[in-house]
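Re: weekly structure request thread

Next one in the queue (73 aa):
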Amino acid sequence: MTENKLTFEEGLEKLEKLISNLEKGDLTLEESLYKFQEGMELTRHCRSLLTDAEYRVEMILQDGERGEVKLEG
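Done, posted below.
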């Protein structure tokens, strides 16, 4: 599964596992750098999903203030 297809929860779980592996300290320098890069990509992906969710909440709230609540997927 590519990072762009991960749900927020899947991305967060993968990130937590990655951090746990890095904290153990038994990886080589090259492996650690790869894991760090992967973690940064996951962080960007999760942040993007949160930003999208925030936008959707704002739209729902604005529509609700006008009496028009629309759910969009």
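Residues 40-66 form one domain. Residues 18 and 35 are 7 Å apart (CA to CA).
Next request, please.
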